[in-house]
Fold this protein.
Amino acid sequence: MAPPILDVSDLACRRGGRRVFDRLSFTLGAGELLALTGRNGSGKTTLLRALALLVRPDAGTVRWQGADVMAEPETWRGRLAWLGHLEGLKGDLSVRENLLVAERLRGAAPPADRLDGALAAFDLSGLAVRPVRTLSAGQSRRVALARVALSQAPLWLLDEPLNALDAPAQAAFRAVLQKHLAAGGLAIAATHADLGIAARSLELQA
Amino acid sequence: MSGFIALLARDLHLVWRRPGDVAVVLAFFVVATVLFPLGIGPETNLLARIAAGVLWCAALFASLLSLDRLFVADYEDGTLDLLLLAPWPLELAALAKCAAHWIVTGLPLAILAPFLGIAFGLDRSSLLALAATLLVGTPTLSLIGGLAAALTLGARRSGALLALLALPLCVPTLIFGAGAVETMAIGKNFTTHLAILGALALVALATTPWAMAAALRQAGE
């Protein structure tokens, strides 16, 4: 078996003096998906934020290909694609502009064909020039997912990716995620629903 | 650096889409300053004497007025997380946001102020001094205000708290800005004042981005 790419060991996090999780360890290899499950408030979002270093873990290490990610946080952030419970989109910009800006903020302007590909994958081609504030919740979620797909980051951190998605959009998301995994990518998704893809699972106790 | 330019361009683009936000700030500046000649009456000497102080205070309030939205908008729609996760320093992101704020408020205020100075009966050299000091002084206001906006992010009544934090820190800039115009009015050279204003701007530039970044990381937790 190939050595794991992501190695999380003994991660602990406290928020407001309360223990959220403690001594949490798991590994993830190329092409693997980890489904985070657990009750509301069990710390799924906190774990994702801790892995992204948005929340500083109180103990433990996160290693990527053997190197501690806290040593070089900027390199680590470049490896992540983030989908939070907020979409991270600007309502006054169009769908296409939002995707372009998000990629430029990651340091590179995407070629037009890749951008069109990400739009088409989530059936957004017809909405590309619409301002995001005029979209429905499900449509905005699709734009946020297209942003993740466009990033080419090896590790996707997804918080409730299926929220507000209808059945065709869920199928589109599965197809994109499977393509990412088949290309050797990694993904960690906090979810209540069944992702419909073979995944390792980690249940957090409240 | 490309990330810095991307963020600056994005913020300017957003203002372009919604010019009303900036128009309100500039309108506030005009209305607030014009009230003084109307209230005090045609006392030309008195008006000319207080003009610099009034215009500088109004510029300070106007730039604070727009600052409370500086980071809140990004915080509310989740784009702040994307800035926190961008693979380049957050300090640069904070600086880009302040630069965008200065371009859409500080710069227009400095251009607008000499025209308002005419209503106060300022002479030509004082108008020049006014524009020059605002041009050099308003970046400090954007940076200090940006720091206060970052520190109050997520707090209740953040607008009032922001003003309370930022106003005392802006006092040196205010004193030297208004002082320069008065110096000019009595026929002396104002370059010393201008140099001090420039020094204050450089100190703000060298310190506030780090403090802003730390405050934003804290708000992101």
Q: What stands out?
A: The first helix of chain B runs from residue 2 to 17. Chain B has one domain: 2-220. Residues 2-220 of chain B form one domain.
